[in-house]
Amino acid sequence: MAQLAGVALGVINCSSTALADPIALSPVGLAAPESIITFSERALADTSQVSTEFADLGVTFLPNLFYRTGDHPDWASVEGPNLRTGDPEVNPFSIHFESALTSAAFAAIAQPPTAATITAKLGGVEVESFETTVSIDNPENYFGFSDIVFDEIEIAYTEETRLRIDNIQLGPSANLAPLIITNIAVNREGGSRDSWKENYPKRCFGRS
Length: 208
Hints:
Elements: E1 2-10, E2 21-26, E3 35-37, E4 49-50, E5 59-62, E6 65-68, E7 82-84, E8 93-111, E9 114-122, E10 125-134, E11 142-157, E12 162-170, E13 179-187, E14 192-193
Antiparallel strand pairs: 1-13, 2-11, 3-12, 4-6, 5-8, 6-7, 7-12, 8-11, 8-12, 9-10, 9-11, 13-14
């Protein structure tokens, strides 16, 4: 007779052949974000390091960025307080989300312009990536992802420049229900009898 050995819980990493919808050089980013972080939510000293200061709003920055209080009338989509990559330079850097999302976008400018690789990750694993150009001269300067599940966006760039980011748009949270494995039974003769109940999201790394 089989003897019940235990109950295990795990998180499924499912994938799809469908690719994400990258948001590259968009004039608006997300059409209907659930929230927007403008960096005016905190009164920080100019050039302060920023890592976890906006965690309660849903984002942290690794390794860090720098808070800037000023803007410029010609900086499209970057108004008021914003974050900058350095001095010292921070490249690459990541926007980490406090919960996994199905979409997010942010405004970014650079002077001089630079080629950049923008990567969505989930649990540190690459989900989707694209190459683009970040420039101070292009008013269509929102970047991000939709229709996938991710908890981090990494930005890496090639030129000696300074990037500024602003207006981080957060989309819906992902429903990462676990894969539930129950009734794992192993008999005394070393055989096994497994049964399980699967309960996982319809959308994982691609569109449903």
